[in-house]
Write a structure and sequence with these properties.
- 49% of the residues are buried.
- The chain has 329 residues and is an alpha/beta fold.
- Helix content is 33%, strand content 25%.
- Helix 7 crosses helix 9 (301-317).
- It has nine helices and 14 strands.
- The radius of gyration is 19 Å and the shape is globular.
- The protein has helices at residues 12-19, 37-47, 56-60, 74-86, 101-114, 128-138, 173-189, 279-290, 301-317; strands at 3-8, 27-33, 51-53, 67-70, 90-94, 118-121, 145-153, 194-201, 207-215, 221-227, 236-240, 243-247, 256-260, 267-270.
- Strands 8-9-10-7-11-12-13-14 form an eight-stranded mixed sheet, with helices on one face.
- The longest helix is centred in the middle third of the chain and has 17 residues, at 173-189.
- Strand 13 (256-260) and strand 14 form a beta hairpin.
- The chain folds into two domains: 3-123, NAD(P)-binding Rossmann-like Domain (Rossmann fold), CATH 3.40.50.720; 128-270, Dihydrodipicolinate Reductase, domain 2, CATH 3.30.360.
């Protein structure tokens, strides 16, 4: 069985994603869609995709698409994914999953009601190094996990017209980078009881640098830093009562773990991804569809909702109210 993929969006994220299909078996990209027909046609020609659609609606209604990968700016995810789910198409939705918690909840409720597969494209969880880190934690190698510390800063020149900074496109550090931080903390600690945030803003109000503290009722915590105005290592450290695991920079697509235990030399494991690393999440979607599953156990929908709730709490504390894009498909 060959699973047929459609790509919604023709930006940098879609470019990265489709290149990794060279490492995927049992699936092929059959169509691409964009609000700009010329962009879809150019993308299709460059990547050898048979069909280019001049709207997301046409892509979704295409008979030769089983899965829609949503690679547009955050506020456009909800409408595209909703239409795809309504059409019975499985969806892989880029992170952040939506611009708002209400939008995320609506998609999850609809996917569950319709029995349609839905997953957030949190590729980090499928990287071999992160998979191994989770296995080590689950086996008790570092004892009880008590803390997660992580940073992700990437300096970008401020441009209010760029997607990274445009408030109407979900720009800012929280949705673009903070989603990785909250997700890695959630992956190893679970969902927090409280979220505390502080940060700086650009002249247009988009969040520039954000510090987050995720607090748990039993005293566990995650300290997280996201920034678009400062380059940082991009390291994550999982601290346990018997040691720690460092997911070496940059943690959101790593190839190295450093395991530290009291009284012994640090152990380094090198576990590179295949290709750029996006193929691993594609394999998971294909595996789930072949098994008749509607959710992934690695990125379950409840995890996505809990991460989205934390992100929205951060934005509200920064005085930012996110919105979904109301533009019709």
């Amino acid at each position: 069985m060959t699973i047929r993929w459609g790509i919604a969006g023709t930006g940098a994220m879609a470019e990265e994603f489709v290149r990794d299909f060279a490492h995927v078996s049992g699936a092929r990209i059959t169509a691409v869609g964009s609000r700009r027909p010329a962009s879809a046609e150019d993308f299709a020609a460059r990547h050898g995709i048979a069909t280019a659609h001049g709207s997301y609606r046409a892509l979704i209604e295409s008979a030769d698409v089983d899965v829609v990968y949503v690679a547009t700016p955050h506020p456009q995810h909800h409408a595209i994914a909703r239409a795809a789910i309504e059409a019975g198409k499985a969806v892989l939705v880029e992170k952040a999953f939506t611009a708002t918690l209400a939008g995320a909840q609506d998609l999850v409720d609809l996917a569950r009601a319709r029995g349609v597969f839905c997953m957030e494209a949190m590729w980090t969880r499928f990287q071999p190094a992160v998979v191994q880190a989770r296995a080590l934690v689950d086996s008790g190698e570092i004892g009880e996990v008590r803390t997660v510390q992580a940073d992700l800063g990437a300096y970008r020149t401020y441009d209010p017209a760029s997607r990274l900074f445009a408030t109407d496109l979900g720009g800012g550090a929280t949705l673009d980078l903070g989603v990785y931080l909250v997700s890695i903390a959630q992956h190893f600690l679970g969902s927090p009881a409280r979220v505390h945030a502080a940060g700086s803003a650009y002249p247009n109000g988009a969040d520039a640098t954000v510090s987050m503290l995720l607090a748990y009722d039993d005293g566990r915590s995650a300290t997280l830093l996201a920034s678009l105005e400062s380059e940082t290592p991009g390291r994550a450290v999982i601290g346990g009562t018997l040691g720690s695991i460092e997911i070496a920079p940059r943690f959101h697509h790593p190839d190295t773990l450093v395991i530290r235990r009291p009284g012994v030399a640090a152990e380094t494991l090198v576990l590179p991804p295949t290709g750029r690393g996006y193929c691993h999440e594609v394999d998971e979607v294909n595996r789930c569809l072949a098994a008749g599953l509607t959710e992934s156990a690695v990125v379950p929908l409840q995890d996505t909702l809990d991460v989205q709730a934390a992100l929205e709490s951060v934005l509200h504390q920064l005085g930012i109210t996110p919105h979904e894009d109301p533009t019709p498909l």
